[in-house]
Amino acid sequence: MHPASHARTNPDKPAIIMAGSGEVVTYGELDRRSNQVAQLLRARGIGVGDTVAMCLENHPWFFCLAWGFQRAGVHYVGISSRLTAPEIAYILEDSGTKLLFGSAHGAAVLDEVARIAPDVPQLRLDSPGPLSAEDALAAMPATPIADERAGVDMLYSSGTTGRPKGVKIPLPDDPAIDQTNVLVQLAMAAYGIGPDAVYLSPAPLYHAAPLRWSMTVHKIGGTVVVMEKFDPEAALAAIEKYKITDSQFVPTHFVRMLKLPEEVRAKYDVSSLKCAIHAAAPIPVPVKQAMIDWWGPVLYEYYAGTEGNGSTFITSQEWLAKPGSVGRALSGVLHICDENGDEVPRGTEGQVFFEPSDPTLPVFEYHNDPVKTAESRNKHGWSSLGDVGYMDEDGYLFLTDRKSFMIISGGVNIYPQEIENLLVTHPRVADAAVIGAPDPDMGERVVAVVQPLDIAEAGPTLAAELTDYLRGQLSGVKMPRQIDFREQLPRELTGKLYKRLLRDEYKAAYEQAQVGASA
């Protein structure tokens, strides 16, 4: 299963449709372009096992590049187009990238990257002149390279708790570019995604889920509709216009759609949806319930990471019986462990680990970081993404939070996700982050940083309203001691929240105040 085979049998079928512009890339064109990409890599001396990267927005050429890399046997890195030049340069150096593809959209930042990392050559889409990717590719044959071999992505963590780390998985033992994989089997068996699927991808393609799931749909032979940028009403319009059958979202997408005026939500026909997959972040129970009430039992949730060490899965029907669960283990054997790495009884909270269900499969490592790789394993060799949760008697996993986000106030462990979930269900709140800020008496105090729907409402009156709202639902120790307001939280478009930035900011302010007090 590979786009090349669909290009032979159905060359005029749309492989990619850009939701906003309506631009179409057929399977025939995808095959030609990806061959030219692979040819270009070989012409530039880039061989099997080398690393290349792309840093661009959701672009019609994105998957042409990705499939070209895949059939050239390289590790390919997707870099966020929202990063700064030093952040991009760090990833290029850390990954050993030999060629970077970008676009005119990010020219200013990429020019700075070229100054910082002059040894990494660049090609850019939509950029006439010596850096033109289109010109370089047009000079290449549109036929397969002689040494086709399956490559694999090498994606970097979003840096929510530190510098991003590359998740490096060995190239597949089977070199065939059309080999099937677990994700293809899952998509077809669990989600019912088939060749007639019209799949909506609303998130940035440089992240694991949008990239891998969209490429999975291409393997199966469906059509991927790519949103250039997420907008809640535009997503509903795309579902109606393209008769979307399958899609993937993150909880913040659902929150934004639910907070559209009722008359806006009601004007779009979403009845074509058979499967709306969501993952990437915990979802508040009321939000998921509201989405099922609106769209029907078409929501499917999974828990997994870029590392690919294991996963869980749950249907809408199961979730209605187990509200808040992310499902039972689908790949890997699920374990909940204490700080010593020992398994705890069902219903007891601990760190979430996966044991490989097949010990012969390749395992991930954090590139150039053996310490972090070792820290992700326990004494049994099971691996963890750093999340905390518990399993019930039926084997359903309930996530509490990330271990690194835990607040310790007066010796009490507080997981901020519960507080955040309550805040985002308030009708005046668009987004919320809860962190631990330094406190001389308690060690840390609970601080809520809130993004109101209307920033003009920010102030003491709204803070008091939110405090009253939380007081009836939280124990006293979990109550925020401080509520601050921001026009925008530092959240990645995939739903990941950069709490590190907020915590560093509050820590710096505290340290500065201490210096001032002692002066």
UniProtKB/TrEMBL annotation:
All copies of domain AMP-binding enzyme C-terminal, residue ranges: 418-496
Transmembrane regions: none
Location of the AMP-dependent synthetase/ligase domain: 6-353
Alphabetized InterPro entries for the sequence: AMP-bd_C, AMP-bd_C_sf, AMP-binding_CS, AMP-dep_synth/lig_dom, ANL_N_sf
Record GO terms (molecular function): CoA-ligase activity
Protein name (database record): Fatty-acyl-CoA synthase
